[in-house]
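Exercise 7.
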Amino acid sequence: MQSLAERVAALDPDAGSAVGVIAYFDQLIERRAGLEAVVRGAAVLSGAVARLDDPDRRVRIRVTPDGRRTDDDPPVRPEWPSVPVFPGEAAAVRLESTRKSVVHDLILERAALVAGVVTVRVRGRAPVAADPDDPALTETVVDPEASESTRLLAAEALGLSAHAQARAVARVGGVMHVQSAEVPVSSLPGRIGVGPAVPVLELPRSATAARTALRFTADGTAHDPGPRIVHADELGGLDILARALDADTPPPPDVATLLREAAETPWLLQTLSVVSHAASLRSAAGELHLHHSTLQERISYAERRLGWPLRTPAGRLRLQLALAARLLTRRP
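Solution. The predicted structure, written as tokens, is:
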């Protein structure tokens, strides 16, 4: 389909865009994507804020053109184009735009169609023989706007008892996973933010915490040192730092200095990351496979370049905050 879209676009750009839109939403159906993915697709493809408002089922999803879900909920304006999800019902997909566009109309039509398919599958009736990793069911379980009965129904389809303790696990790319609290998460690949174990009906809270924890994870490489798995339960006051910083926040001065120096000194980030959490400089040297004196030389060099001490409690705290802020202010 992608190849067809490219060939058509070479002949007629508008027609090529239309074929691409159809292919995109067809893929969402094939992947059994959730409602948020549908709205995100509409936002990214149109370049406008997209939203799904379904008051009858207490669903409200709003996504910005860069793919981020936002909790802002400005009143609906009548001039915004919209398409109902179900005939005769209030549920609708709309774009917060006044621009007239055939491609926008097609995006809304396809998004509403797919939203209807997903809604019927996970909210309108009991799911049958559901996939335990079904993204749409997972989205429903962690959706605070969904009714308790809907969330319990989805949880049951995912194999979670209403009386079970479960947790949400956030992964890169907006992927959310829910599982029994008794199942270890270390076997999952990639960076992982782990939410607290909670009763099934409190999984939206666990998911929010998991997303925050994910922001403190790293690839664990020399270029991106840090933990691959972070548990929200262990963040403590760092949660406040996460609320103050995001990818749109200019890097604090210490982070800017750290990144500038790391660009010139390849070993700097990994060395300082290990030093920041090691119990002692000797154990840090062991973890880095360095002689103790070599590590001392590296720290002296880093202190000169960064401009603050690294071997005092205050200096280590400053380093830990700078490393955490680096993770929080980077682009996903």
